[in-house]
Specification:
- Two copies of one chain form a homodimer.
- With 171 residues, the first copy, chain A, is mostly helical.
- Chain A is built from eight helices and two strands.
- In chain A, helix 1 packs across helix 4.
- The N and C termini of chain A lie far apart (48 Å).
- Chains A and B meet through helix 1, helix 4, helix 5, helix 6 and helix 7 of A and helix 1, helix 4, helix 5, helix 6 and helix 7 of B.
- Chain A binds a DNA duplex (28 and 28 nucleotides) through helix 2 and helix 3.
Amino acid sequence: MLTELEGAILIEIGCRDRHTAFKVRQAFRESPSSDWQGSAGSVYPAIRRLIERGFLETAATTDGRGTQHLTLSTAGREALLAWSTNVETTVSIGMDPFRLRAGLWDTMNRDEQLSHADALLVAAKQTISDLRHYKQDQDKFETVQIELAIELQQLRVRWIKNWQSRIGAGL
Amino acid sequence: MLTELEGAILIEIGCRDRHTAFKVRQAFRESPSSDWQGSAGSVYPAIRRLIERGFLETAATTDGRGTQHLTLSTAGREALLAWSTNVETTVSIGMDPFRLRAGLWDTMNRDEQLSHADALLVAAKQTISDLRHYKQDQDKFETVQIELAIELQQLRVRWIKNWQSRIGAGL
DNA sequence: TTACTCATGTAACAAGTTACATGATTTA
DNA sequence: TAAATCATGTAACTTGTTACATGAGTAA
């Protein structure tokens, strides 16, 4: 069994040509989906665990920095496939800061609600535009993720507009 | 600043009449959004922190179990409002097991894709039906969350159907 | 009186964060 | 040669998990 971070690391190494821990960290830091900060304290220990479990193979390069060139073993590929096709985990709801807060907004007064709805709309639309721009020069793995992130934001935009009309109707 | 768990705890105590740590844990365990397991090891320390920071007030009841009746202080209410209206956090993408895996499914062969898409559809639809059923006897706070969770699952269902037709078209 | 529920909490562990520390290689 | 980038890692801390431990109140 792989954790979400371990799965993400195997994707970077096995599918997206990030063959060093450093490049994996870089990919995480550059990704707009804020799943992981790509901190050294999480990535290096996770990669060590994956090596110990035989999912990653290392080919030490000859450079003086001790760069480790990482590749997926057969067991690593199998583990990644099993992880990515686990139906139960895939359809689980997950953590969503928007959903967690949405129930509270009805406790504000009408003016606060209207201005908050407005601020949320602006921010969500900005995020969509940022994601569309970022999507341009990404590989297919990242592209699929970005498209899904955009659809999530669009869902939020629709929800906010619907909420606005409910507020407007005085419900 | 509150963490996601601390915000969720203040909602339970301040808005949903879960006035003991035990009832908060119970609410988390019963909630179908698997954000938190409601483990004692997270809830009790978090509540202790919230008391220390002056966000929660305790009224010890006279029973022999040492039940602590918890309520939000004024500072607690303010902190909860600030937490719930933080726009940046609210529109952040968050962690989604579906999105994280979706990019990988294109590396499988056609037959594997079709059977996996099918399994995902069944599971997602089941989740929607479970959520609808659970929604019946919930308060407005939980209802809003459940509705958003349902809309997320419906988005996934549409995405899967779209993916199926792309597979079918041999792209 | 036995079993279930209500209620609190700790201990060992897992896995993330930031900040720190080091050094090689490349580019201006 | 100075600065930026590539590359590795550790240390202290935070916060979550499961499992364990305890005991009071209630209903069969």
